[in-house]
Amino acid sequence: MGCFYSRRIDEEDVIYDMTPIRHLPVIFVNGVPGAGNQTVAQTISNITGYTMIRPGELVRMEAEKDTARGRLIADKLQAQEDIPEQVTVDIIKETMLMNQDAKGFILVGFPKNHRMSNIFNRQVKWPEKVVALEVDNEVAATRLQNKLSELGRPEAEINSARQIVKEAAHKVKNVHKRFGGHVVTLDSSGNPKILASTLKEILSDTIEKCRKRESQLPSAASAPTVAPKSPTPKAPIVTSPIENTPILQTEITDEAT
User: Where is the composition biased (Polar residues) (predicted)?
Assistant: First the structure.
């Protein structure tokens, strides 16, 4: 069974059949804002060829849509309130289903809390690796302040960077505890070349498993011919459509990086 129901904002059940992507590897890149989530994720993407998914950016794009879900997110963002975890996971699921030809996925700055991770693990799959970024909170706060300043954010938001990092650090540690042996820690304040070398080493087993899996998949030419059978009626499986989903390899700034 690969189908999961989610309750949408308009109270209609939508079935997400995650079977088409469940065989693909998933890596979480998880650290506090300013830890370098985006930089590390891009490096992993360069090494593996996996598709990056930025949940924070997807949520903000959804807020621009004139839909029940979009309006809810916009209201939450305006009030500086947390987005419901299920809403974020649903948007990620839709994006993954729109990129079924990907080699794998990298979720940037995900998950934000243990509830979000539990929903994703149950409805999609467990990640192959959780790359936990380690960086001094003061360094992360300074980076975040600089990024917010570049984005032209209000002075009050820039000044709250230290508090944002402090609160995020507690949540991130709790998330990492739940993944046990899946977690690999990484000092994200190092030289980019050293960073890439370290990532190649800690992801070597995941990359090798992916290569073996790909080599075992039958090619179109070698696939056995199956005699057609009379169609058997079955209940339709509906995968949630998402219109005009962007290709996620474009450079988009995410304040959570």
Answer: 241-251
